[in-house]
Every structure is written in C-alpha cells, then in structure tokens.
C-alpha cells in the first residue's frame, strides 16, 4: 500500500481549495475609510492604493492582540478579512470609534459574499483561466466579472504557500469543485505547520503582535494608533520578553501546556496537531532562554524542540 502523502506535500503537488466563507468579511466605505483604518490598526494603510492590500492587526490600548486581518483596498471601499470568532466583536469595536465628523461606514458582508483560499497548482489554473499575469507584490488584487458577479482575486493564500484568496458575490462551486477540497481541520493543521497564529490561541489579550512575530503588520513611523505607545516602547527598548515559535514533539499534547527548561517554566504551547506519528505545535518561549534549536519539555517530560516555521520566517 502506498503511504498516505503528507498534507503539505499533496497541496504542493496537486493544489487545493479551502472554503473560508465562514470567516468574517467587513467593508469600510466613505471618504475617511483609509484614514479611519489607519488610526485603528497597526499598519500604514494610507500608503495603499486601489489594487493593493496588506495584513494589519487590531490592538487594545495596551497593545494586546485582538485579531490579524487582511485588508484589500478598492477604489470605493476597503474590504477586511477577519477571523470568524472576531467578526461580531470587531464590527462593534470599529463602530465604537466612529465619531460624528468621520465619513466612514462599516458593514458586515459575511452573509452576502463568499471567500476561498486556493493553493499551488489550483491557483495557477485559476490565474490562467482569467488571463491574469503574475501579481507584482503580495496582497495585490484585481476584480473581474464571473457569471455576472464580482470576483476579487488577491495574491495571498493566508499562509507561506503560493496561492490566492478569492472573494466573490456568489458561491464558486462551479469554478472550484473540480479541485481537492480542504476541511476546517485541514486548515488548522496547515496553519499550525506553517506557523500562522490564530485568534483564541496565539492571538489573545495575553500577547502583543511583536511577541507573535507579526512585525510585517506594524508601521513604526506612521504616528498614533490604538496601542502605538506600547508597541513603540517595546520596539525601541527591545522589551519583547517572549516570541512565538514552532515546536516539534514526539506525541500530541493538549494546549495550553507549559514549556519547561529544567524545572523553570519558560513558555507555553498554544496549539498542537498530529504529524507523522508525532506532533507539531506553536508556542511562546521566553526570549532570554533562546529560540530555534532549543530543547524544552512538558511537565510530563515530553521533549519539545523549538524550530522555525515558514509563515513567521517569511514575514519577520
């Protein structure tokens, strides 16, 4: 019997589709939409032109992480792709910061639109089908008409894998059903293997985006935004006390699980997935004890090897 190929290997050779239509999709419109988003999140939104995009982080006033979001700038609006469990919170949170003089409206487009991540060869076929040349930069996007509905194709898979994000006004089953489909469990496995932090796991109010190694989402010279003072202080004085890493284990463990160096707790495993008879996880490790190459253990004595992960390595 031929051994079952690893999921990452299958995606690399065959490509795949992940239906993430249950993720939150928010739309900002009005003259001040980019200025408003610029002031409420960590990245420099004002430099983005229609057809461009970026990742940005929403923070508390003390720079704790609320969510990692992808924004796509269109000519008349800005679209945000947010974590499914953060959609309602962010909708209300953003609305709270709209003042009477702001010309901006925030609407929830989740129930009236559809979103898909497509990887590898599938993304190449979709790009060719619409006659598009390769995108110049990550998050670049174009909007085309497909069966009478608007379809946006963006140059990001959400992971450190080649691919696209498709945002459509109608379901894309006719376009995507011929290709291998990923489940939510598959996505969870992939995002842990790749090192993408997730809401309620690595992205909580216990951590800031510098600890989560999301430096690509932060502008250090754009001026004031919510949480900016804390971020600037941590960056200037190198005050980040822990960082997010990949973790190799011999057996799966249930997060959250303490990470020990000798008898001292030096970190916390926050996510874990089975892998080839062993396991792979994500977790925070204190900066002072090291990073990749370090060997830790769980309270049960299970060895844990600290390693790099593609998503955090590519965006650091």
Q: What is the beta-strand fraction? A: 25-35%
Please estimate the helix content.
10-25%
Q: Which stretches are low in confidence, meaning pLDDT under 50 for 5 or more residues running?
A: none
The N- and C-terminal alpha carbons lie at a distance of 41 Å
Number of helices: 8
Q: What is the N-to-C order of secondary-structure elements (H for helix, E for strand)?
A: HEEHEEEHEEHEEEHEHHEEEEEEH
Give the averaged pLDDT, no decimals. Answer: 94
The biggest sheet amounts to: 6 strands, mixed
Shape: globular
Quick structural gist:
By secondary structure, the chain is an alpha+beta fold. The protein has helices spanning 7-14, 33-40, 87-96, 120-129, 173-176, 184-194, 228-236, 310-315; strands spanning 16-19, 24-29, 53-59, 65-73, 77-82, 105-108, 114-119, 141-146, 149-154, 163-168, 181-182, 242-249, 257-261, 264-275, 278-286, 295-297, 303-307.
